[in-house]
Design goal:
- The complex is a heterodimer of chains A (277) and B (297).
- Chain A folds into 2 domains: 17-54, no CATH class; 64-275, MetI-like (MetI-like fold, Orthogonal Bundle), CATH 1.10.3720.
- Helices cover 76% and strands 0% of the residues of chain A.
- Chain A has 15 helices and no strands.
- The longest helix of chain A is centred in the first third of the chain and has 34 residues, at 2-35.
- Chain A is globular, with a radius of gyration of 24 Å.
- The termini of chain A are far apart.
- A two-stranded antiparallel ribbon of chain B has the order 1-2.
- Chain B contains 13 helices and 2 strands, in the order αββαααααααααααα.
- Chain B has helices at 2-38, 55-62, 64-95, 102-110, 117-127, 134-141, 155-183, 187-195, 200-229, 232-238, 250-260, 264-289, 291-296, and strands spanning 41-42, 50-51.
- Chain B is flat.
- Helices cover 75% and strands 1% of the residues of chain B.
- Classes of the chains: A mainly alpha (277), B mainly alpha (297).
Chain lengths: 277, 297
């Protein structure tokens, strides 16, 4: 009897976790299985494992959806926005966090307002501004929009990292003859690596998966990113669903790889972004 | 020479902040002002603009579809917030303790977080497919044929179906945050309470909940702002507001008004309304996130 009392909650917990695990993971497994089925089997064999694994679906998706170009576009936009956002955020966060100057808190509050303006809410006017600047239909325009959207949160995270470093690091370096900027790049930045990694992973993932602005700003077929391509793929009439599912897997693979490579920084970064105050 | 060094020293912080200020102003603040300005004009996006005072806002408020869309947006935001947080908190309580294959389960539950709304939307549209979908196949398997329906084409169930998908995507994210929050609570409190004879419920009510409170608040606010604003992708790909506006949210209706109906003035007026709503919740979130800091100062 005591045994039941002791183990019942544990067992119940285990059952709950397994159920949610299956609900979360099985649709993804199913997506992969569907991408490997033959066109006929897709409709008749809903549950099961494919009879023959049709790896040629992936080749078809790659060619029919011209995913090579789109993969490259997504890659350029993601990497470009990261390369722009990280230095911009680090510089500003360093100044705000570790230097004393007039209007410092006003500048900080101004930039933090971005946290109150969630990405996507200003879609239409951003489109108008990009149009006026001639930045619509260009990957550079999209990179600028993405990077701007990451400024507030990025500075918030980086500033808390910079503040947590001990005082006097710069003085020591300056006595050794370093300039202000060298102090920043050679002494402080290497110590803030975890914060930088956090920013890269989270914002990068967001850029890779982003659809709203990519769809709004890029109209040229040759400039489209992967999520936009998938959405258009679905709109076609003569579409083979196995091919579509192969395309979905192709889009997802890079994100999953990043997750498994950086799993540790993921969990640390998540809590840093949300909890640091 | 001395002067140059002094000048550099004085302006160095401003130079460091300048790129961030310029980018932020160009692509967040300028659009905000532009949107506010356009919301007072009647404009189709191409021809000349004519000032019409607050007429757009009047049209918006009289628009029955918009009222439905705003209602749906709030239903959506509240439903996803409640479901995401309750499920994630429950799972976090279980998975924070020693547990067989703990990391394996955590990773599996986290996987949907990594995926694009577009991928998820297409995948779930197919899971909900009335004839070939996984969900109806499952219902057939367990003998619940009576529940079989076209989940996304039935106006009564379409909204709930989309909400389920959004919740599915983000459970893992909130779970990880809650686990981190729970791990931050020192074991000493629990040991002391146990010595004093507190039972499990008392420990939960008097230690866990108060100390987890900041985590809960941040999670709830993130889910609300996300639910209010970041729902365009998923709704657009799954139902695009249909059937009969049953899943119309303000984001999809704004896009339709701007590009299908060619009414940029009204679309911007609606954008401003959404902006104000999101700004209020964002402001609370920011206050909570910076509370510790403000208390220290």
């Amino acid at each position: 009897m005591t045994n039941i009392k002791k183990y019942a909650p544990k067992l119940l917990g285990f059952v709950v976790v397994v159920i949610f695990f299956v609900i979360c993971a099985y649709p993804i497994v199913w997506m992969v299985l569907c991408s490997l089925k033959g066109e006929g089997e897709f409709y008749t064999n809903i549950w099961g494992i494919p009879e023959t694994f049709m790896f040629e679906n992936y080749l078809k998706a790659w060619q029919q959806g011209e995913l090579g170009q789109k993969f490259l576009n997504s890659f350029i936009v993601t990497v470009g926005a990261i390369l722009l956002m990280v230095p911009v955020n680090c510089c500003a966060a360093y100044a705000i966090g570790r230097l004393k100057f007039k209007y410092r808190s006003i500048i900080y509050i101004y930039l933090l307002m971005g946290i109150m303006i969630p990405s996507g809410v200003l879609g239409i006017p951003t489109y108008q501004v990009a149009l006026a600047l001639g930045l619509n239909n260009s990957l550079i325009g999209l990179i600028l929009v993405y990077a701007s959207g990451s400024i507030a949160m990025g500075i918030f995270i980086m500033r808390s990292f910079f503040i947590s470093l001990p005082q006097g690091l710069e003085e020591a370096a300056m006595i050794d003859g370093a300039t202000r900027f060298q102090c920043f790049t050679r002494v402080i930045l290497p110590l803030a690596k975890p914060g930088i990694v956090t920013q890269i992973i989270f914002s990068g993932l967001g850029y890779w998966n982003e659809y709203y602005y990519a769809n709004l700003l890029l109209t040229d077929e040759s400039l489209r990113t992967l999520p936009v391509a998938a959405s258009n793929f679905m709109g076609r009439h003569n579409i083979e669903y196995t091919t579509l599912f192969a395309a979905l897997v192709i889009i997802t693979i890079p994100a999953i790889i990043v997750y498994f490579v950086c799993q540790k920084s993921f969990v640390e970064g998540l809590s840093a972004g949300a909890m640091k105050g | 020479m001395e002067k140059i060094i002094k000048w550099k020293e004085k302006y160095f912080p401003y130079l460091m902040c300048a790129p961030a200020i310029i980018l932020f102003t160009m692509f967040i603040i300028v659009p905000l002002i532009t949107g506010f300005a356009i919301s007072f004009f009647s404009w189709d996006g191409y021809s000349t603009m004519t000032f019409n005072g607050g007429e757009n806002y009047l049209f918006v408020l009289q628009d029955e579809v918009y009222r439905q869309a705003i209602g749906n947006t709030f239903v959506y935001a509240i439903a996803v917030t409640v479901l995401k947080n309750i499920i994630a908190l429950g799972l976090a309580f279980i998975l924070v303790k020693k547990f067989p294959l703990r990391n394996f389960f955590r990773s599996g539950i986290y996987m949907p977080v990594m995926m694009s709304y577009i991928v998820i939307g297409i995948l779930w549209t197919w899971i909900f497919n009335p004839t070939f979908g996984l969900l109806n196949a499952f219902l057939r398997l367990i003998g619940l044929e009576s529940l079989i329906r076209g989940w996304l084409s039935d106006p009564t169930f379409a909204m709930a179906s989309v909400i389920v998908v959004d919740v599915w995507k983000w459970i893992g994210y909130h779970m990880v945050l809650y686990i981190a929050g729970l791990q931050g609570i020192s074991r000493d409190y629990y040991e002391a309470a146990e010595i004093d004879g507190a039972n499990a419920w008392q420990r939960f009510k008097n230690i866990t909940i108060p100390l987890l409170n900041p985590t809960i608040v941040v999670n709830v606010l993130m889910a609300i702002t996300g639910g209010l604003v970041s729902n365009y992708d998923i709704v657009h790909i799954m139902t695009d507001g249909g059937p009969f506006h049953a899943t119309e949210v303000s984001a999809t209706y704004i896009m339709r008004t701007a590009f299908n109906y060619g009414n940029m003035g009204k679309a911007n007026a609606m954008t401003m309304i959404t902006f104000v709503i999101a700004f209020i919740f964002g402001f609370i979130q920011l206050r909570v996130m910076t509370r510790q800091e403000r208390e220290e100062n």
